[in-house]
Amino acid sequence: MVRIAVRNGRVQPGYEGRPMAALEGFATRGHETRAKPAARPPQSSRGAMDWGDVRVFLAIARQGSMRGAGRALGLSQPTIARRLAAFEAGFTGQPLFDRLPDGLHLNAVGDQLLAAAEDAERAMLTFERRRAAASPMLSGTVRIATGECAAGFLARCQSGGTTTPLPSGITLELLQSLPPANLTRREADMSLRHQPPESGDYYVAKLGTFGVAVYRRRGNDTDAWVAYTEEQSQGQSHEPARWVQRQVEDTKGVVALRASSMLMHVEAIRAGAGRGVLPCYIGDGHPLLERLTAPIPDLAATYWMIVHRDIRRSACVRAVIDWMRRVFAEQRDVIAGVVSAGKRQGPSI
After folding, report:
1. Where do the domains of the chain lie?
2. To 5 degrees, how large is the angle CA 202–CA 208–CA 213?
3. Disulfide check for 328: which of 12, 102, 207, 287 has CB 3.0–4.6 Å away?
4. Which class in CATH covers the domain with range 140-211+301-336?
5. pLDDT digits (tens, 9 = 90+) for 220-245
């Protein structure tokens, strides 16, 4: 079975080429051992270094606090503190962080370890990815990081909205990730994003483009709008929110409701609170909604599938890649908002 969660592993003594070698070099540097008779190999007085402690060290360095590191790793704050103490004890007991009012900051000793710890992380994550990809079985969980629009579409397709079935032994886990999931660190097995990455060892494929249009409850002639929050509407990263806000301002319209998520918008528009923008695959398929516009070019949302090449070797991940490509091809007109013959579009806005 493909193992999805990164699991802490203890590196065994005597494993040559181990990724902890760089860190262990820091731990023993400056401590000479007296020559012994050649009766047996010398034994280290220090136990094998725990990869989990290295992860904690890096998480604290990146998050700036034990609480933040705990959230990033899914561990409690007391566990983080205990693991940090164990890690510091392995380096002659010296503190690696300065405890300041605004959080924990690497001191000079800790800063010297950072590059070696990151080297160890890269090696261990490569090992974890390749171990996860080694199983030939079509059974396990595949985690997909994406936004609401694509996640809702995948859930719909897995539940019978398509003629292409997903292999029965595979479970999809859909994750909404802001900022985007780090695939190198295995925060997800694959990601669906609006832009392909500029660099990295990834398999990348364009899946399709979602059409977005204005909808209202069928027969409801309200001119009020269901808009996004003021913060989203004034920001630079949420084009649907900015587009609706421009319509409100240009027409001196009324905002009946502001809400931050697509699900809230669907429910508000369905209930008749006002008109708003929705992906066409949702609005066209809802019996209580009618479309008021053609798909809006400025709001078209293209999605790219991104998978680390190590994880792509996994039988489960390959099966999901193939399934998604077939589903997006089969449902191309649905997601683009191509209105089928005989389906009438409502009055325009």
Report:
1. 21-26+48-132, 140-211+301-336, 212-299
2. 135
3. 207
4. alpha beta
5. 988 999 999 999 999 887 899 999 99
